[in-house]
Amino acid sequence: xxxxxxxxxxxxxxxxxxxxxxxxxxxxxxxxxxxxxxxxxxxxxxxxxxxxxxxxxxxxxxxxxxxxxxxxxxxxxxxxxxxxxxxxxxxxxxxxxxxxxxxxxxxxxxxxxxxxxxxxxxxxxxxxxxxxxxxxxxxxxxxxxxxxxxxxxxxxxxxxxxxxxxxxxxxxxxxxxxxxxxxxxxxxxxxxxxxxxxxxxxxx
Amino acid sequence: xxxxxxxxxxxxxxxxxxxxxxxxxxxxxxxxxxxxxxxxxxxxxxxxxxxxxxxxxxxxxxxxxxxxxxxxxxxxxxxxxxxxxxxxxxxxxxxxxxxxxxxxxxxxxxxxxxxxxxxxxxxxxxxxxxxxxxxxxxxxxxxxxxxxxxxxxxxxxxxxxxxxxxxxxxxxxxxxxxxxxxxxxxxxxxxxxxxxxxxxxxxx
Amino acid sequence: xxxxxxxxxxxxxxxxxxxxxxxxxxxxxxxxxxxxxxxxxxxxxxxxxxxxxxxxxxxxxxxxxxxxxxxxxxxxxxxxxxxxxxxxxxxxxxxxxxxxxxxxxxxxxxxxxxxxxxxxxxxxxxxxxxxxxxxxxxxxxxxxxxxxxxxxxxxxxxxxxxxxxxxxxxxxxxxxxxxxxxxxxxxxxxxxxxxxxxxxxxxx
Lengths: 204, 204, 204
Prior knowledge:
Structural class of chain A: mainly alpha
Oligomer: homotrimer
Distance between the termini of chain A: 55 Å
Largest sheet of chain A: none
Order of helices and strands of chain A: HHHHHHHHH
Number of strands of chain A: 0
Helix content of chain A: over 70%
């Protein structure tokens, strides 16, 4: 559907913006900002496509994804010179991106007839791996591995999809989006976290 | 052979456990522990399959690998709450995992008719790349690149395989296992290392 | 052409040498030096081939690339024991490697009939990704993302290629080399940089 394509491009832009903002913190140059923005936006889907053998990867087949990500990163550079983006708006947009990528990737892999477990894993990988590579390139421990629910929200959404899709596909899509979105927004608002796997010595 | 499949799953479990234990040191949450365990267990084979074009990668074709790795990581979380795993048992188990992965990957690539050099490289990559990605995600310099013989033990084992396999395949398999295992266990016991490539200024 | 193949191997050697020298700074052992040299030399092309689905990747199809990279890294270890390589000679050789890889990769992808944008991206990725992975494995923030023009020189060269190639292919190749080389050498000599994407608070 055309609507899904536009939502996908929206998710790409949001992730490119978050990447550009991380690059700003690290004081990278213009090229670095574009690279980090691009990697954040397309990294997860690229890894998924390489693992599944869906090659050339999606943005080689449709360079619009690259164009949109680069433009979003460049616009970010210009805009934040004059106007500080409100932190909340960004986190909410990022939550939408997460929910969209989770739905789109899980659905795509599930349509290929792969097992539900693999569809869930690919949904999570597509939506979080870009952020992990962004953090690696920026030399910080991947936030995703120890912050509020993030990947877990994607995991929950993808699980909802593979459970509901065989029963009612038109219900599965919106509920996947809702599950991921609400879990992530709730986590931002109330600082939900998973239990830390502490060392025995430290917890006693 | 069925026995090889079970050995492979055993290697997967061992690496997932070592990954989970590294994640514990870094105080990651439950999800982070599972991710690091999974990446350590299947990362090397995933990279190998992507490089060879054996896609979808092995765990997409047989999700049992994912199930076993996730269960092993989760069990680790539960068990270490009550019982500290003895360091030695772990290192020995990890040495077995290293030897198994080296044998299984070298043999698989060699059977595909690729050159001995490539078979050796793929054997080493399959058995050590997971640990490298684990260390990158945990933000520490990959231990493999500067500890006791580890990748070198795998390299020696894989070399034994490609030298012996054309002559006597049924001898090549056990000797590959033995070479890797003994070199690694000896390195743990007597702290064998390769010469450090020091700077001239410092060595003079 | 045979000449292109030899130039390609020359680029591989140069990058393997720079990788080995970074590994020396980090005091890695012999195996670590060879791994870092190899990754620097073939990492970019490997990622490109995996993304495009040109698998098995180039060095699996032609192991000469591996042999040359390993030999170059080992020779570096031996040579620098007795003789300190002049920093300038190395930077100039690296600039040649960058220009060669940019030309060879952009041309190869363009010949496959992919869009100019993708050809440029693959040209840049092939020539810089190896260095990024080298820096990640050595636990330093990728230099490429915040030093003098480096990836930007590759980007400019690749862009020259896709603009000129449809008009005059025999002119496109040397001008691509020249553009990348002169930009990079100029950047080394006069410390050309791109503007830093500073935070608004800091720039005011």
